[in-house]
Write a structure and sequence with these properties.
The protein has about 190 residues and is of the alpha+beta class. The protein has two domains: about 80 residues, no CATH class; about 100 residues, 3-Layer(aba) Sandwich (D-Maltodextrin-Binding Protein, domain 2), CATH 3.40.190.10. About 30% of the residues lie in helices and about 30% in strands. The chain is built from seven helices and ten strands. The strands form two sheets. Strands 1, 4, 5, 6, 7, 8, 9 and 10 form an eight-stranded mixed β-sheet that branches.
Length: about 190
């Protein structure tokens, strides 16, 4: 939306479209039809449940989020991770109202992880790197594609070309791999354009 409003040069996106079971392109087609752009992969990353060390509540699936003693911390409305949670709940035949804490929102993966680490929540959906950074246990659920949505004007700019060189470099990929939960098989590849 920031690209559409001219408030950003590029944007990161990991929006799963449940109807097509694909990432990002359906949203670009819906909201950025008039913008010539390229979709450049940054990484695939593991999304899953972040829990306290030792997993004291024995959480293993999305269904466990509906247990009355389990306190959940969510991402904000509109976030890709929130859309993913809603999709996973629907796939499991569950309603958001069944999840204690569904309405409690944070704006980053790290903020969700901090809630779990501090004990104000028992579980949150997020990326492995955030769980690893705070010493949490992580129950992987699925990989997701994280892409950069880059308008042609930005793509042609030498500054973006420098960024592209960086993300394609061995040093960047080694650093990202060290964070945990990232797969860089498509890093720097143009996956789609309009």
């Amino acid at each position: 939306m920031a690209l559409r409003q001219g408030r950003a040069h590029l944007g990161g996106s990991h929006m799963l479209d449940p109807e097509t079971n694909s990432y990002n392109v359906p949203f670009i087609k819906r909201y950025l039809t008039e913008v010539p752009l390229k979709l450049v992969n940054l990484a695939w990353r593991e999304q899953g449940l972040m829990v306290a060390p030792g997993n004291p509540k024995q959480i293993s699936t999305i269904r466990d989020l509906t247990r009355p003693e389990v306190r959940f911390i969510n991402r904000q409305r509109g976030a890709g991770t929130r859309l993913l949670l809603d999709y996973l709940l629907q796939e499991a035949g569950l309603e958001a109202e069944q999840v204690q804490g569904y309405a409690r929102e944070e704006y980053t993966h790290m903020a969700v992880a901090v809630n779990v680490a501090s004990g104000t929540a028992d579980v949150g959906l997020g990326i492995m790197a955030a769980a690893k950074a705070l010493g949490l246990d992580f129950i992987p659920l699925l990989p997701e594609r994280y892409d950069l949505v880059v308008p042609e004007t930005t793509f042609a700019d030498r500054r973006f070309q420098t960024l592209l060189e960086v993300i394609r470099s061995r040093e960047f990929q080694e650093a990202a791999n060290a964070l945990g939960g990232y797969n860089l098989k498509d890093c720097g590849k143009i996956l789609w354009e309009q």
